[in-house]
Amino acid sequence: MIRFNQVYKRYPGGYEALKNVSFEISEGEMVFLTGHSGAGKSTLLNLIPAIERPNSGSVLVKGQNVGSLKGGALPYLRRNLGLVFQDHKLLFDRSVFDNVMLPLQICGFDHRESAKRVRAALDKVGLLPREKANPIALSGGEQQRLCIARAIVNRPSILLADEPTGNLDTDYAADIMGIFKSFHQVGVTLLIASHDENTLRRFGARTLTLKHGELQP
Amino acid sequence: MRSWLVQHVRVLLFTLRRLRATPVSSLLNILVIGIALSLPAGMYVLLQNVQSLAEQVAGTPQISVFLSMDASRDDIARIGKQLKQHEAVGQAEFVSREQALEQIKRTTGLTDVIGGLTQNPLPDAFVVYPKKLDSQALEALRNELQKWPRLEHVQLDSAWARKLEALLRFGRLAVLILAVLLSFALVAVTFNTIRLQILTRRDEIEVSKLIGATNAFIRRPFLYFGLLQGLLGGVAAWLIVVASVHLLNGSLAGLVQLYASNFTLRPPSADNTLALLGFSAYLGWLGAWLSVAQHLWRAEPH
Questions:
Q1: Which residues of A touch B (CB under 8 A)?
Q2: What does DSSP say about strands A189-193 and A158-162: parallel, antiparallel, or unpaired?
Q3: Cβ distance of B210 and A78 shorter than 8 Å
Q4: Domain covering A26-54+74-216: architecture
Q5: What is the CA radius of gyration of chain B?
Q6: What band does A133 get if pLDDT is binned at 50, 70 and 90?
Q7: Which CATH architecture fits B62-157?
């Protein structure tokens, strides 16, 4: 499903974020990505939806080399991916409902069908009672769940999450990991970046560890 | 197809709401565009009017033949006969000095002034309608008539029409230059408006791109906004021109009476109106497109 072949990513100024990274994630797998802060977790995740491009090596998603995709093809790649951002990237000028509606508007879905899907997604993360609220009024954990609802409303086959439990206390974190587990059970491929060792140990899933941009054996 | 249409209608409604949400700045922008466009548009309308007037007048070129003040009745009869018999003359119409004075009294309202005159200062005259209307034949006829005795002055009334035509060409070029310059201004105004909108909606654009929005999707609301703003600016320009024509006609009525003409300025034709609206809408669209393109280009992954 996702495959990295000898990927290097250098930033201007010579800083090497990723060095010779190769791995493969098969369909329906749930994989954790861990490592100290600044180890390259976010960079690695950004390469999959082509938010950034590798300097060398190839990143394959469903057999497609996303590093060399033209700008016009990127939207269609990203519509198949669910992205949960570290900083949530919610829009505070609209309601919870409209935040989740955005991906469906972008794909040009029928309005009534979209409304149903939005409510289903909000229900899954337990935010249905807050659909009319403004995201600014939500707690950190709720904002994180809203971001997840927006990522899954398109029913993507791959879900990428960057520090989804970053600033949450243990109860909230367990909540969110439970939500991810339920996606895993319905066959979604998940790649979750986290430095939270406790959570990882509890799940016992396959773990990729980055250290100074290199994948540890 | 249907969902595509629904999307466009939704964006259009959204754009209208946004225009209404900031009424003052929307109105000011529309006014700026309207005033900028009304200058070349108004000048164009003026030129069109002057041109049609020139065509009216030049369409029937005539030669005014003024007799000298000491011409006797016999002279008048002789000259009239000679003129009618001349092969190049189609028709010759006698205007006596009394008729001319009467006409001036009637049309200028200078009755008092004229009443104070002890004698009629006007000469007798013939209005000659030549057979051949090309400028060479006209010139030749005038030169010939000028040599006749008892004629004070021979005036070819189409000479000024040709000078006017040259002047109109100059005017049209000036309008074109003005239109091009102000078009740039319109594009710049829209560019800047859209740039500010992009800045306030930066987050939305970023998130939309990250979750799979095409550039067309992101561009669409801004393009509609530019198009609509340009179109409304065009409407404002049209209103300004039509109102000005109306106002000018009011004061022109007094002026043209002096020349015994019923000339009135005509407002822009339907064709010209459509062209104005289409052009301003297009320029608005172009300004918006450039603005969004610049932003999107910067946001591409490199």
A1: 49-53, 71-72, 74-79, 83, 85, 89, 91, 93, 102-103, 106-111, 150-151, 154
A2: parallel
A3: yes
A4: 3-Layer(aba) Sandwich (3.40)
A5: 31
A6: very high
A7: 2-Layer Sandwich (3.30)
